[in-house]
Amino acid sequence: MITIPFSYHVGGALSWNDPTYIKRKADRALSNAITQGKFAYILGPRQTGKSSLRIQTRHQLVQQGYRCVTVHANQLCNTTKASATISTPEEGCSAFISTLWTDLNLNKTTALRAWLKATAALPVSERLAHFSSSILLGELRKTPVVIFIDEIDALLETPFLVDLLQWIQQCNSDRNTEATYKNLNFVLLGTTTASELSSTCPAGTAQLQPTAEPSDDIEMLFSNGCQISLPPFQLLETFSLQQGFEEKIDNPTALLKAIFKWTQGQPFLTQKICCLASGLMDTLVQPSYKPIVLSTKTINQWTDNLVRSHIIKNWTTQDDPIHFRAIRDRFIYSPHSKALLTLYKTIYAGTPVLANDRPLQAELRLLGIVSILNGHLQIANPVYREIFSVKQSRLSKVG
């Protein structure tokens, strides 16, 4: 097994052998869903470990003999919605199939360009079905295949999304009647909700959906699928993160607990503050290179000062990689920003708000700044409470 030196990784997906990767219940849940042939989806806020989980799972599956391919939906079209390059379902279909064809090396019997040209006149649904039955499973008939589609939210306003989700549902249905389809598995990941994906009807595609059947099919896909949740880290899961400062301080567990008090296990924030703490500890190491002896009280005070000076104070200029600004912008530019702010202020004030599945709450939870505790919504952690304070009249003025 290839190992890499221990260092904190702030932002971006972790490699399969990164020593800072924290295993959660989701790791086993996703592996089990795939091996049981279930469609799985991991949808939630940014920077909570979705892509890192994908990389870990993919590596394990490859070791077990699976063929895996990852389609980055944001590479199929520009992430700037106003300039999406997919203007028709046909363009989206060609880009998607080209990615699978290339990454899975599906060129043993037919050339990609020749196949695309020969099938160009087919409706998108038939083209995808022909690809899966004749090409994909035709060449990989005895090999289990997993198709990961990451950042699926990048396709929300493209005309290809409905066709793609319908195709996945059809492949899942075909598992019941055609044995070869049991080897085809799908995992969706992204910053969106199943409800948003199920109800999507991009501009320019209404004429392709004369009835409600497409949405019904997509709802069935998610209702029968396996939802993989990525809750914050639990403290007991994170002790491996002490490695970055356990030789610098005599009580690394106290420091990790002090950090956890601020982040409540939010993955990105936990990694970032651990990284900051480890770096600042280097300036305090004694000439003898012996661990610094500090009381728990001193560690707590030092951590509080670190968070306030390097995270909260002037947070808009210290937000690198971008985290808080992305949350703020999604909040401000939401078409429901006024209602979101009203709901957020209620939660911030400590007024009990029962959690439900209504779109407004789902959108607020998708930002990551609120979570569910004992059936009620709460601010997810003290860092968010400090940065996204409601002392200002509008969230956009914070910072």
How would the blueprint of this fold be written?
Layout lengths: L24 H11 L4 E4 L6 H14 L3 E6 H4 L12 H15 L8 H7 L5 H16 L5 E6 L10 H14 L9 E7 L3 H5 L14 H12 L1 E2 L24 H12 L3 H16 L13 H17 L2 H4 L5 H9 L4 H12 L10 H9 L2 E4 L2 E4 L2 H6 L12
Parallel strand pairs: 1-4, 1-5, 2-3, 3-4
Antiparallel strand pairs: 6-7
Helix pairs in contact: 1-2, 4-6, 6-7, 7-9, 10-11, 10-12, 15-16
Could you describe the 3D structure shown?
Helix content is 46%, strand content 8%. The protein is of the alpha/beta class and 399 residues long. A 5-stranded parallel beta sheet has the order 2-3-4-1-5, sandwiched between helices. Strands 6-7 form a two-stranded antiparallel ribbon. Strand 3 (145-150), helix 7 and strand 4 (184-190) form a beta-alpha-beta unit. The longest helix has 17 residues, at 296-312. The relative contact order is 0.11. Mean pLDDT is 89; it is low at 79-84 and 202-214.
What's the pLDDT, averaged over the residues? 89
Question: Which range best describes the helical content: under 10%, 10-25%, 25-40%, 40-55%, 55-70% or over 70%?
Answer: 40-55%
| Number of continuous helical runs | 17
Strand composition percent: 5-15%
Strand order of the largest sheet: 2-3-4-1-5
How widely separated are the two ends? 45 Å
The gross shape turns out to be globular
**Cα Rg:** 23 Å
Structural classification:
alpha/beta
How many strands?
Answer: 7
Largest sheet: 5 strands, parallel
Order of helices and strands: HEHEHHHHEHEHHEHHHHHHHEEH
List low-confidence stretches: 79-84, 202-214
